[in-house]
């Protein structure tokens, strides 16, 4: 593979260009060049690659199935929203060489990466970048260029002093271990060393008892601290001698603080830790809007990649808008718009492959809009018996279909019913109407006086087989909370636009919370969001709405909140609502925090200490002036944000040492978002990185926050170092 390979890079059925691909000597970077011009087109890092798919596992390669056999085709999938790379090798052997080689290179990685592995990769990467003449050595001029690339504005005399100290051979250049020494001197963490020495009697090591004291006093670990201290030493102490003596060196202490155990995110909440035996309506459920779209709502591309990406992010509620296609084959696209179309069979096949690859095979809900005479596969199934309030545990490995239904679930359990389906639900009424208005398509809708004939027509077009597939999520129109309590069932669901939901939150917050304690509610974006922008999901979660559908293809604060909430509980896509939101007689109203039953407000104190190796702003060579803003999202009384001062010209190791304080009245609903920006006094600050998590998942003490990009992917080794205190 290192010799390079000539392959076809494919973007469409008609766009196939030959490119020369080569893995660089660092085994971390792949370059590809034009065969015709020999000019390097682009490069990507192995660390950017999430997975490699063999065969015709993309729409583009599927369209070329008759021309190229699957053995020669493969797809490189990148993290985040970066487009996939479809390739066709000259032979099956060449394809296997690349597929297996890439998998071996990416397989050892795990998230979060260990500090030692990140450092090793980081050092090697920077050495390759700085060694301009590729002689395996680096002179002082190259070091100065390196510092600027690394976001460091350092005094030349100080830089020269570090260079000379590391140049043990006195050759005037750095190579191998000398560069490692230079890097270690450059990355010396004075704030961590000071903390280490505060608990170390001799300033050189932490004994087992000293480490236990640190864990109890600062990290507030109160159970099994001696066993935990032993495990940390065995896991993170690099010296075999120190491990044998049960002591932790300064290097081992730093490695612990940068590890998952030293993260702000409680590692016990990364796994499935919540009760999964509550009714579905007692959970927040990760949900997407028009899942098939990967661009805008009017002319954007429809793609199975939308489903794959959403499912891999833990999404459990997907949308499949199905319409009659040519030759009677159903197609999926955004009706009454100019979006592209994908065959329904490809969507179903994709769901079969990816629906249950999350750590906990929790049920998936399909919001499936079927227009016309299209039928659905019988294999989705109908149970012999069922309760009206199933749990995620009971529904593992199952797909629930949300849609119209003839009759009620109770009728179906007793025998087939003949009730006329409710076709006036918001999902297929109001939302479809917004679609028509967006596209400015005038349709001959039947007037309200012909309501009975419209019902009869829909009864004729809704197949019994399709109706039987809708079990726990029958669409019903929302006509008010009292009407719902009198006539609706827990197995039914209403869909509301974001505007209608906001009005209900304003006018009847407590009734909305009570309603969501026994029945599912889905919220969808306004039809005016043709650019696929998102609304703030927090205000919907504040009243217990379970299925808050967002445009997953659009990065920003809204998706950060979504990822932050659902990053817990094994990323299964289900998060249990707090007890006061599961009680049908609750008095809780988000506009009145005192209505929450339980202890008083919580004080959250965050000392922002330092940052490490922050990335530059995209497409900029300038050294950043970083600041940190902490944002609280929750009930209106808890919404707040504070920020540090900016540090001029230092994105490598900025020190803030500033304390921010917040009071949380309803901490059970609060999300905390840490944002790093590049300060600009003349224009809007530029985004650098962020990390969002639920307040319930925060570990107090000295913690590292491993930053994520705008797309929600990790950017190691970029991090913040903070001290967290939580008091009543």
From TrEMBL:
Record-annotated PI-PLC Y-box domain positions: 466-582
Keywords assigned: Calcium, Cytoplasm, Endoplasmic reticulum, Hydrolase, Lipid degradation, Lipid metabolism, Membrane, Metal-binding, Nucleus, Repeat, Transducer
Compositional bias ranges of the Acidic residues kind: 412-433
GO BP term, pick one: lipid catabolic process
Annotated catalysed reactions: a 1,2-diacyl-sn-glycero-3-phospho-(1D-myo-inositol) + H2O = 1D-myo-inositol 1-phosphate + a 1,2-diacyl-sn-glycerol + H(+); a 1,2-diacyl-sn-glycero-3-phospho-(1D-myo-inositol-4,5-bisphosphate) + H2O = 1D-myo-inositol 1,4,5-trisphosphate + a 1,2-diacyl-sn-glycerol + H(+)
Region feature (Disordered): 410-456
Domain EF-hand: 118-153, 154-189
GO molecular function, one term: calcium ion binding
Membrane topology annotation: Peripheral membrane protein
Broadest EC class assigned to this enzyme: hydrolase
Entry keyword Cell membrane: no
Compositional bias of kind Basic and acidic residues: 434-443
Alphabetized InterPro entries for the sequence: C2_dom (IPR000008), C2_domain_sf (IPR035892), EF-hand-dom_pair (IPR011992), EF_Hand_1_Ca_BS (IPR018247), EF_hand_dom (IPR002048), PH-like_dom_sf (IPR011993), PH_domain (IPR001849), PI-PLC_fam (IPR001192)
SMART domains on file: C2, EFh, PH, PLCXc, PLCYc
Major localisation: cytoplasm
Cofactor(s) essential for the protein: Ca(2+)
Listed PANTHER family: 1-PHOSPHATIDYLINOSITOL 4,5-BISPHOSPHATE PHOSPHODIESTERASE DELTA-4, PHOSPHOINOSITIDE-SPECIFIC PHOSPHOLIPASE C FAMILY PROTEIN
Protein name as annotated: Phosphoinositide phospholipase C
Upper lineage: Eukaryota, Metazoa, Chordata, Craniata, Vertebrata
Gene this protein is translated from: Plcd4
